[in-house]
Amino acid sequence: MSLSPASSSWVIWPVVVPLLGTVVCFLYKKKPCLAAHFFAVVTCGTSTVLGWQVLDQGVGRHLLGGWSPPLGISLRADGPAALMVMMTAVTGLGITLYSGGYFQSRLTGGSQDRRFRAQEQSFWPLWLLLWAALNGLFLSGDIFNIYISLELVALSSVGLTALSGKPPSLVAAMRYLLVSLLGSLTFLLGVGFFYKAHGTLELAVVSRVLAPTPPVIMALVLVSVGLMLKTALFPFHFWLPPAHANALAPVSAILSALVVKGSWYLCYRFWQGGGLPAVVGVVPALLGSAAIIWGAFQAFSQQRLKMLVAYSTVAQIGYLFVAFPLLADPAGQGSDALFYFAISHSCAKAAMFLAAGTFFLQMGHDRIRDLAGVRQLLPVSSFAFALGGLSLMGLPPSGGFIAKYLLVTAAISQDLWWLGLIAVLGSGLTAVYVFRAVSSVLSPHLLEEQPALVVAASMQWSALALALLAIVLGIMAPLPLALLEVT
Amino acid sequence: MALSPSLLYGLTGLLLFVIGLAALFTSPQLLGKILAVNIMASGIFLFLITLAHGSGTLIDPVPQAMVLTGIVVSVSSTAVALALLCRIEEAARPHGHLPEKKDEARQG
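C-alpha cells for the assembled complex are given below, as produced in the milestone run.
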C-alpha cells in the first residue's frame, strides 16, 4: 500500500464539507435550503472524487492534525468505505433535491406555515450533520472514533424523527433514542474489551487478529449485539417501523436508506476479518432469515403504505445479514453480494419512501386501499414506486437481481445451499407485498375528488431518478464491484 | 486469588452496567429509563478507567481520553433525551394523559 499525499488529502473532505454546511445552514436561517443544496452538491462531488481516487490509487489514509494513533484520529478509505460514501452521496443528493420541493410544496399560505418553516429550518442542519456523521463512520480508522460517529448519527437521526412534532413521532423518537443509546453503550463496552485484548483501537488490526480468547469473544458478542440492535435486525426490529413510518417523508427515506446501513457496515467490518469458524456466522444468517420472513408477513398485513415500506426495510435488513457465513471464505463473493444488497436497497428504498411521501402529501393520508387511482395525479411517482419494488423483488436487470445472483452462486459454491433457498423464498414473499401496494397505486380506478395541492416536480423526478438508478445498478455492476476489490 | 483494586473497580463497573440495563427494561417511566442509561454509561466509564492501570506503574492515557470524550457524549445525549421528554409532556398535556402509556402496555 503506497500512500501518495494526494490520495490521502481527499479522505477528509466528505466529512468536512457537510459539517461546514451544518454550521452555515444553522446560522443562515433566511434561506437554509439554498445553502444546503450547495453543500449537498459539493459533498457529492468530493465523495465522487474520493471514490475515483481509491479506484485509481488504492487505499487512502489521513491523520487529522498530523497526530498519529493511538491518541490521534486516523481516517482510512478503502474500497468498501468509498463505496458506502458514494452510496450516501448519490442517495443523499436525491433526497436533498426532494426535500427542497417537499418543504416548498407544504407552504400553502395556511395557518400551519409557521410550523412548517420552523421544521424546514431544523431539517437542513440536522440532515447535513447526519451526512457528515455517516461519512465519518464509514471513513474512521479507529473504533473509538466510530463510537463517536455512531452517537452523532443517532442524535441527529432522533432529532429528524421527532421533527414532525406529532405525539406518535415524538414517542417513536424517544424509543429510538433509548434503543440507540443502549446499542452504542453495548458497543462501547465491547470497544473496552477489544482494547484490553489487543492494546489498540485500530479497526484494521482489531478486525484482523481474531484469536478466539475469552475477551475477544466477549468483545465481538457485545459489539455485534449493540450494532444489530441499532440496525434493527430481527428480533431487535420493534423500534424501527413506528420511527420510520411516522417521520416526515424525506426523513423516512434518510432513515431507511442510509442510517441502518451505517451500523450494518460496522458489523460487517468486525466480521469480515475471517478467523472465525463458519458456524459462528450462522447466527446472524438465521436471524436474517427470520427477519426476511417475519418482515414480509408484517409488511403484507399493514393498512398504511408507509408502514408497509417500513416493514419491508425490516425484511431487507435480513438480506444484509444472510450472507455472513459466506464471509469465512475471503476468496468468496459473500461481501460482494452484501454490498450489492446495501447499495441497491438504498436507492430502491429511498425512491419508494419518497414516492410514498408524495402520495401522502397529495392525498392527505396513506391508506393503501384508498390510494387507488393515485397514478392519475402522480404518474411519475407511481412509476418510481413500482420500479423500486421491482428492484426489491430482485427482477432482472435490477441491482437487487445482481445481489441475489451473487448470493446464490456464492452460497452454492460454498455448500451453503439453504442460504440461496432463503434468498429465493424471500424474493417470492417480497413480490406478494410489493404487488399488494403497486396494484393499488397503479389501479385504473378513477379518483372522485381532485385535491387542490400541487406538489413540486422535483419531488416526483428525484424519486424516479433514484428508482432508475436501482435498476441501472444491475447493468453497471462491474464498476462498484471493482471498487470493492480495493482493500 | 487476591481481589486487586483494579479488578474490584472493573467488576463494579460491569455490575453497574447490568443494574442500569435491568432498570432500562423494567422502569415504567421515561425519566427512569434515561437515568438507567446514565448508570450504564457510568459503569462503562469505571470499567474503561481500570484498563488504564495495566501492569507496572505506567498509566495508559488512551482509556482516560476515551472516558473524557465518553462523558461529553453522555451529557449531550442526556440533554437530547430530556428535551425530547419535555416535548412529549407538552404534547400530552391537552389530552390529559401520556401517549407513551399505551405503547408501553403493547410492548410489555
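Residues 101-108 of chain B have pLDDT under 50 and may be disordered. The interface with chain A takes residues 17, 21, 24, 30, 33-34, 37, 40-41, 44, 47-48, 51, 61-63, 65-66, 69-70, 73, 76-77, 80-81, 84-85, 87-88, 91-92, 99-100, 103, 107 of chain B (CB under 8 Å). Further analysis is deferred to the final report.
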